[in-house]
Amino acid sequence: MSETWIEVDLDAIVGNYQEVIKHLCPGARCMAVVKADAYGLGAIEVARALERAGCEAFAVTRVEEGLILREQGIRGLILVLGPTSKEEWPKAISAELQLTISSLSSITELDEIYSEMALNPELNPEIQRQVLVHLKLETGMGRTGFQHTEMEALAIALANASHVQVAGIYTHFARAAQRDRRYSLGQYERFLFLTARLEELGICPTWKHVCNSAAFLDYPQWHHDFVRIGTLLIGHYPGQGFGQKLTLRDPWVAKSRIVHLRTVPKGTDVGYQSIYRTKTLTQLAVLPVGYADGFGLAPHFVPQGWVDFLKIVTKNFVALFGIFLGQERVELKGRRVRVVGKIGMQLTVIDVGMQDCVLGDEVRIPLRRTVANPRIPRRYSQAGQMLSERTMKEGVLPANTEYSFQ
């Protein structure tokens, strides 16, 4: 049994999904974003639980992520959000993944690859009638998407591609989480202008979708046919100031066990560079977790104003004098305990004082979902019971479940 593991409460994820759909505008549906292995929670298990709860559409970034979901029995709509290569398209077409298109050359090449597959039944004897794609429009994110100057050429390319059908059209907001309403409003207006222009040119997608988690909360009038929800499903709000709009549950708990414990005298140096020295007689406990597992790692944040900037500068300045603000803390028997010394690659030391504890005691760890090592075992629970691997596999929807999307 692993000494470090992650517990995922599937009921919490389903509850968050149900909170989202309660606030959808009429006609809108939730597209669950399960990219990056469902933000570290496990895309297969999360998608299965959501599909059982009625979710019919999922989004990933890469083709390989979509193929894994298909191989594991997920049968709803699966949209690949990121750029893809033509080497991946045959498998994507065979698995009926819906692809995002954001360059003109992709349309012609995709049409040609489909034609080759259709003429060669050995490649896929049950090939779908057309390749379903979603057009990505660049409105201010600055990553991928068709520019406003490409609308006429885009319409011509699609008209000449007999095997490519536009199922959806969307854009992505850059500042919705910062609640920059002026910028988001500008993006949305550009989206409406570009989609209207395409409709004039004969391109009329079945679905439109623009809202990520932040925009879903702030702009219900923009829900359209789908909202793309990831952050809210894992129990997090997209930024400060979004609380109280939904009742969310955190499905994630990272745990480890004490593997070494000893009593040390006052003045004992701890860890690399001896940046910590015990202040009194105490107990030091060792946990088998470190930065190789993602513990102590944090994404780089751009300061959101002068207050954030001063916090960052102050934290780094006082560290020169051996004062470490914001040091990680873990939870042992309901009590918060400080990490001491530098976090190692796979070992971390905590100062538990003279608290009653023994080898093997469980410790809760504040491990970020997106940086958690995927090799750390995930243990899933539902209705208060831990689920076996067999139960998870047998939990997929029956084969006769029908969807209206394909």
Give structural notes.
The strands form 3 sheets. The protein has a 10-stranded mixed beta sheet with strand order 11-14-17-16-15-18-10-1-19-20. An 8-stranded parallel beta barrel has the order 2-3-4-5-6-7-8-9, surrounded by 5 helices. Helix 7 links the parallel strand 6 (131-136) and strand 7. The model is unreliable at 395-406 (pLDDT under 50). It has helices at 10-22, 35-39, 43-52, 63-71, 89-94, 104-119, 151-159, 181-200, 213-218, 306-319, 389-394; strands at 4-9, 29-33, 57-60, 77-80, 98-101, 131-136, 164-170, 207-211, 226-229, 252-257, 260-264, 269-270, 276-277, 282-287, 329-332, 335-340, 348-353, 362-365, 378-382, 385-386. It contains 11 helices and 20 strands. Its EC number is 5.1.1.1.
Keywords:
10-stranded mixed β-sheet, TIM Barrel, Lyase, Ornithine Decarboxylase, Chain A, domain 1, 406 residues, 11 helices, elongated, 8-stranded parallel beta barrel, alpha/beta
Which range best describes the helical content: under 10%, 10-25%, 25-40%, 40-55%, 55-70% or over 70%? 25-40%
Q: Runs with pLDDT <50, length 5+?
A: 395-406
Which value, in Å, is the CA radius of gyration?
25 Å
Structural class: alpha/beta
CATH topology of the largest domain: TIM Barrel
The global form is: elongated
Largest sheet: 10 strands, mixed
Strand order of the largest sheet: 11-14-17-16-15-18-10-1-19-20
Total helices: the number is: 11
- The separation of the N and C termini measures 43 Å
Number of strands: 20
- The proportion of strand residues reads 15-25%
Q: Would you identify the CATH H-level superfamily of the largest domain?
A: Alanine racemase
For the record, the count of structural domains works out to 2
CATH class of the largest domain: Alpha Beta
